[in-house]
Design goal:
With 395 residues, the protein is of the alpha/beta class. Helix content is 33%, strand content 27%. It is globular, with a radius of gyration of 22 Å. The structure holds L-homoserine.
């Protein structure tokens, strides 16, 4: 075996420790962590003190370090680390979906300028090798859609609520205790995390980069027992789904929204912290990938794979961005949605078509067809009146 790759690791949380553990146990790769940069000085840690530093520069400027592995959750710090690593001539492996989604184009440019690479398989759907699959396997395929469950914590919460009748608060606490949730769990349950992953996958699938702020997202924090009962009675399950799809010859739509899925969907059986991705192409038709989307070992295994890919100088080529067909982004797609709400206001005017209306003394909901941009307006104008929104699929 050749010279060991020397890794400078940033962060020693769930994924960092998972990676360390995997590297200890894995015989297939000649790599060692030589220094770990961490933030909190007083946290008890499982490795000797010499491993750790509180100075980022000590790792970034260390000439013995070949590769920077960035696994922290401070977005601004992560941005600076990635940028500085590339500028200091080091390749980077990152799991930081927020930073990648927000600075996607800048990072492509930086890779071109420095000749160095960023690999980030672990940033999307944990242990499912979806980025490299999209990038390499579907290189020439005309993709129609990429859709799935991209957030392990919210899927865990929904599974516990629907299968075991556990409350939202208790299920969220469990997802946090198991190390699935972000330090700010709002990112999971409000759909931000799933959106960052969607933005990254959409760029690789369709060559279209859209800043996360422009992408619609709606999460699961408003879900109630009534919504779950409504789904159960119709033999459906509620899942938080991210979708990007072609909605005409040259336009793409994308959004994150809870969706009622039936037993014929591959996503119906994706439970707990598992994620699932359905890729549909003109020639391959539908293909389905599933695996653990959160947790130290599954995510660490994706990081390991990127470290191994570095040994043979693998880089993303961003094939789809170079294709002649350039897509536009559209927020005009029409969704069929269920909206549970309170109060008395003219909700009807937001809809293209109202299909069902229900009201008793405590609950009211409507089902209808609504344009995505109108749904967005409705949610911002009547934030406090809207209880929960769930899609019944595209129209
Ligand atoms: N908080 C994320 C999730 C971790 O629950 O999916 C993996 O990206």
């Amino acid at each position: 075996m050749g010279k060991a790759i020397k890794i400078g690791l940033f962060g020693f949380g769930v994924v960092g420790q998972g990676l360390y553990d995997i590297l200890e146990k894995s015989s297939g790769i000649n790599a060692e962590v030589v220094k770990i940069a961490v933030k909190h000085k007083d946290k008890p840690r499982s490795l000797p003190k010499d491993y750790f530093t509180f100075e980022a520069q000590e790792v970034l400027l260390n000439k013995d370090i070949d590769l920077i592995v960035e696994l922290i959750d401070d977005t601004d710090a992560a941005y600076n680390i990635i940028k500085s690593a590339l500028q200091n001539g080091k390749n980077v492996v990152s799991a930081n979906k927020k930073v990648l989604a927000e600075h996607f184009e800048e990072f492509i440019q930086l890779q071109l300028e420095t000749g160095k690479s960023i690999l980030y398989e672990a940033s999307v759907c944990g242990g499912i090798p979806i980025i490299r699959t999209i990038e390499e396997y579907y290189i020439s395929e005309l993709l129609y859609s990429v859709k799935g469950i991209f957030n392990g914590s919210s899927n865990y919460i929904l599974s516990k609520m629907q299968k075991e009748d556990i409350s939202y608060e208790v299920a969220l606490k469990q997802a946090q205790d198991l190390g699935f949730a972000e330090s700010n769990p709002k990112l999971d349950v409000e759909g931000f995390d799933a959106k960052y992953k969607l933005v990254i996958l959409a760029a690789h699938s369709f060559g279209l980069y859209i800043h996360p702020e422009e992408v619609f997202h709606y999460g699961i924090s408003g879900i109630s027992k009534f919504d779950i009962q409504y789904a159960k009675e119709k033999k459906l399950k509620i899942k938080l789904i991210s979708s990007v799809f072609k909605n005409s010859e040259n336009s793409i739509s994308m959004y994150v929204i809870p969706e009622f899925v039936d037993k014929y969907s591959n996503l119906y059986l994706v439970e707990d912290e598992f994620n699932g991705v359905t890729v549909e192409g003109a020639f391959s038709d539908k293909q389905f990938f599933s695996g653990k989307g959160a947790g130290g070992h599954p995510t660490g295994s994706a990081v390991l794979s990127d470290i191994a890919a570095n040994t043979y100088n693998y880089k993303y080529e961003y094939h789809k961005t170079q294709k002649e067909l350039q897509y536009n982004y559209s927020s005009e797609s029409v969704l069929r949605v269920y909206i549970r709400y309170g109060g008395d206001f003219n909700l009807e005017s937001f809809f293209e078509q109202l299909l069902e209306r229900y009201q008793n003394t405590t609950i009211q909901y409507v089902v209808g067809e609504i344009k995505l941009n109108r749904l967005n307006q409705l949610l911002s104008e009547f934030k406090t009146e809207i209880g929960f929104v769930c899609s019944l699929g595209d129209k």
